[in-house]
């Protein structure tokens, strides 16, 4: 492709990579820099909706744990940190996409949004939350495993609050260290100088823009593998723990009659929490597995064939779909908690005062009251129910069986 130096006038870009798409022969290549119709729908409606729902659900769960003292258990401490990680991930990942979409028509223009150091910071936060979520899910799995399968064994993480805080601190520090090692995957800045086609769609396209990308193919492969290998190891560990918990809970049903009532209730409560967390864990690994598997394949293919572009391994449409699954995983956890466990639903209603409103409504408006009135001609003493008229009323007025009306002042809540 020929590049016309005079196009940029007196502006000097010594490290600029020139491209000339002014010819009609290259208009298809130039269109790859524009947002497609599907991209516009995703960035205008889908991504903002996911971000809004994710922030709402995770903040609601954090509020419930803060408001209800009985919800401050060891398991919920772990789930709280998962919710914080999901919030940070959604804000940095989706927020960056929405801001870039609103800042420039060029979907590969990173410099228009913010400087390179900001991109590195968001990259570190992104990968830290990814690593932390995987590791905290493992802590949750082990905590429930000991609660269900080894209830009589002293488990330090469930009896010592300092140990819980220590484990969470180790998880976040280790996750941050792993995220820092992936900086070479975003450390390169390339400046492009482009002559766009003479088409109205490219009128507002910047002629000079920056992209942030991996320093080398080896750095790209390392970033992909260091993200995926721990995930698969943790997935295997959690799968073993889940299977053992399910077998233990199933085997315990046959011997439940040997326990007294209080023990049965405790076991039932513990098993319900375990089932909820198993559902949550299975959902987590199901939604994140496709993205992690694709990243693993791209990392291996990059090592085996360094000259092959990564775009030829996974299409843009496939990457977008896998990212959508990853985003949905970060918003769905609190929904699972409330759908799978009545204790969490009750705490949610209590924290937001919905249970009080429901009680008041049922008490004063919708729940009927009954009273008995002796019949005027009732002389039968054998059956009192035959000598009464049952009247139902609310807090306004109600017509009774004989046509009389109870005034509002006669009702009580």
From TrEMBL:
Q: Which GO terms describe its biological process?
A: neuropeptide signaling pathway
* Regions that span the bilayer: 40-66, 78-99, 124-146, 166-186, 219-243, 273-301
The record's SUPFAM superfamilies line, in alphabetical order, gives: Family A G protein-coupled receptor-like
User: At the top level of its lineage, which domain of life is listed?
Assistant: Eukaryota
Q: Which PROSITE patterns match?
A: G_PROTEIN_RECEP_F1_1 (PS00237), G_PROTEIN_RECEP_F1_2 (PS50262)
Q: Name one Pfam family in it.
A: 7tm_1
InterPro entries, A to Z: GPCR_Rhodpsn (IPR000276), GPCR_Rhodpsn_7TM (IPR017452)
Domain G-protein coupled receptors family 1 profile, residue spans: 57-337
Q: Name one GO molecular function term.
A: G protein-coupled receptor activity
Q: What family is it from?
A: Belongs to the G-protein coupled receptor 1 family.
Full protein name? Neuropeptides capa receptor
- Source organism: Holothuria leucospilota (Black long sea cucumber)
């Amino acid at each position: 492709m020929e590049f016309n130096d005079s196009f940029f006038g007196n502006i000097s870009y010594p490290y600029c990579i020139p491209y000339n798409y002014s010819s009609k022969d290259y208009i298809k290549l130039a269109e790859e820099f524009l947002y497609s119709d599907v991209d516009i729908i995703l960035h205008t409606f889908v991504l903002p909706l996911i971000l809004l729902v994710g922030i709402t659900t995770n903040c609601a769960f954090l509020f419930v744990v803060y408001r209800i003292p009985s919800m401050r258990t060891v398991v919920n401490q772990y789930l709280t940190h998962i919710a914080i990680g999901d919030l940070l991930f959604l804000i940095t990942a989706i927020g960056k996409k929405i801001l870039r979409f609103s800042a420039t028509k060029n979907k590969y223009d990173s410099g228009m949004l913010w400087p390179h150091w900001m991109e590195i910071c968001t990259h570190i936060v992104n990968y830290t939350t990814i690593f932390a979520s995987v590791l905290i899910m493992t802590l949750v799995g082990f905590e429930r495993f000991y609660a269900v399968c080894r209830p009589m064994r002293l488990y330090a993480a469930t009896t010592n609050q300092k140990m819980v805080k220590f484990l969470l601190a180790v998880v976040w520090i280790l996750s941050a260290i792993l995220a820092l090692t992936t900086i070479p995957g975003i450390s390169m800045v390339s400046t492009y100088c482009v002559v766009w086609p003479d088409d109205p769609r490219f009128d507002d396209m910047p002629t000079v823009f920056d992209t942030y990308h991996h320093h080398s193919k080896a750095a790209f492969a390392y970033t992909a593998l260091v993200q995926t290998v721990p995930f698969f190891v943790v997935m295997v560990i959690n799968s073993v723990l889940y299977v053992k918990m399910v077998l233990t809970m199933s085997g315990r049903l046959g011997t439940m009659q040997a326990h007294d009532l209080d023990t049965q209730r405790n076991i039932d409560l513990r098993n319900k929490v375990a089932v909820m967390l198993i559902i949550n864990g299975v959902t987590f690994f199901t939604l994140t597995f496709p993205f992690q598997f694709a990243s693993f394949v791209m990392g291996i293919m990059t090592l085996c064939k360094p000259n092959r572009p990564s775009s030829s391994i996974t299409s843009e449409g496939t990457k977008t779909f896998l990212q959508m699954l990853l985003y949905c995983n970060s918003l769905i956890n609190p929904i699972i908690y409330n759908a799978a466990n009545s204790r969490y639903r009750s705490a949610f209603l209590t924290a937001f005062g919905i249970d009080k409103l429901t009680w008041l409504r049922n008490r004063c408006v919708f729940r009927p009251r009954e009273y008995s009135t002796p019949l005027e001609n009732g002389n039968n003493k054998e059956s009192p129910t035959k000598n009464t008229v049952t009247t139902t009323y609310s807090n306004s007025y109600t017509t009774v069986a004989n046509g009389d009306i109870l005034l509002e002042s006669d009702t009580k809540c």
